[in-house]
Specification:
There is one protein chain. It contains six helices and three strands; from the N terminus they run ααβαααββα. It has a three-stranded mixed β-sheet. A hairpin with a 3-residue loop joins strand 2 and strand 3. By secondary structure, the chain is mainly alpha-helical. The longest helix is centred in the last third of the chain and has 34 residues. The model has no long low-confidence stretch (mean pLDDT about 95). Helices cover about 65% and strands about 5% of the residues. It is elongated and about 60 Å long. It holds the Pfam family DinB_2.
Amino acid sequence: MNPTTLAALAAFPSQLEAHYAAIPDAFRHWAPPSWEGVPSEAFTAIEQLCHVRDIEVEGYHVRFRRTLEESHPTLASIDSEPLAIARAYGMADAAKVLAEFRIARARTMEIVSNLTDMQLARTAVFEGYGPLTMRSLVHYLCSHDQQHLAGLQWLAGKIDASKAAVAA
């Protein structure tokens, strides 16, 4: 696997925590009047953390296992909004979510760091993405990580803009 991708995956828990910490406490549950232009799912800062944790475990861990164990499986996409509502993401404890995510990402790193070329070439079909290889799936996870860092930065920009609008 590409060492740059592996390094980005390994660094993500700390980056996620730092980006979340940069959101002012009073805005961690805040939603902008419009989500137009958001580069990630339309989730508040705390909901972003919960989403990343759940997609890691229930999305990518399952997809990795199935791609490695089954012959050309079809991998489900997860509808995140109903999950956020059912699990009350907005009420979550950030420290607990971040700790759970770190454990999940450590498991991910165990899986993806030791894949052979043959395993990386295994194929599947991912709903919404189409045909892929295990290597593709690892890249998509890395892309998903980056989307959520961008989502937190986007929220920080919206928060700052909302403060400027009040001051004007």
